[in-house]
Amino acid sequence: MSSETSKPPLWLAYTGLVLTPLFWAGNAVVAKGVVGEIPPLSMSFWRWVIALVILLPFGLPGVWRQRRLIRQHWLSILALATFSVAAFNSLLYFAAVTTTATNIALINATIPIMVALLAWILLGDRTRPIQALGIALAVLGILAVVARGDLAVLTGLQAQPGDLIMVLAVFSWGLFSVLLRRQAVPLPPLTFLTVQIAFGTVVILPFFLVDLLFFSGGFELNRSTAPPMMYFAIFPGILAYGFWNHGVHRIGPAKAAIFMYLTPVFASVLAGIFLGERLGLFHIVGGLLILAGLFLATRTTELRRKYR
Q1: Which sequence ranges form a coiled-coil region, renumbered to this chain (predicted)?
Q2: What's the confidence (pLDDT) of residue 135?
Q3: To 5 degrees, how large is the angle CA 215–CA 267–CA 131?
Q4: Which of 51, 92, 108, 306 could form a disulfide with 233 if both were Cys (CB 3.0 to 4.6 A apart)?
Q5: How far apart are CA 19 and CA 263, in angstroms?
Q6: In the chain, where the domains are located
Q7: Residue 241, φ and ψ in degrees, nearest 5
């Protein structure tokens, strides 16, 4: 039997890549729906604790086998976990307090643009004019969403705090992506994910404890709060990571990146159904600018790889 026939069917990779943005969109919608009951730091901390408990039986053997390599690269792993598991998700949940799930998803969709921008600034990656145009269009799209279609919001510094926090979250994920290239850790995917979540949970812990003792007081685990926490851990956590990694491996990063365009689409539909959020003209204009920018930036990357 050839190696090609032994691989999982290609349709499984595409199915996973469609489900991944659906789960990410659901993350924003569910967070917005329960942020009044579950404080953001509690949401972030317990999400990863649950995910880690589920992963440990599968990931712990690899962690033990690679323990010397983990000790050797622990500072790099700590930095990567801080910007991804700890900062990005905590900031996203804080953003849900004062902005809509639709805005979260639209701003979140600009992650490839932020990665390209930071790679240009920090790594000196070559940026072609059409890619720079894509970045500019996406930035205009973000400004349209943050300003809610009113220039006075920007000039008067009246933007929703949640929108600005979400921009910071995207910046954090961009730093993670750039660091991942610069400080690659040679660990198997499951082992790396396990230690990444473990390190990130440790980073969140002191902030969670301060919030628990002096600010939010935590939350009560009951029938209305338990299902969202399980959703956060399993679907946008473990499954989305697994589906995304498999999809990138099977069809390549450039093609896989196109599926990120589905996140704001799914989020707007889910937010309309479950939260009663309505799309405004600024959502449409901003979303189109963001999608156009993403298309130009990722399409340029794909062509460059194809003809290099």
Answers
A1: none
A2: 78
A3: 105
A4: 51
A5: 10
A6: 3-307
A7: -60, -45
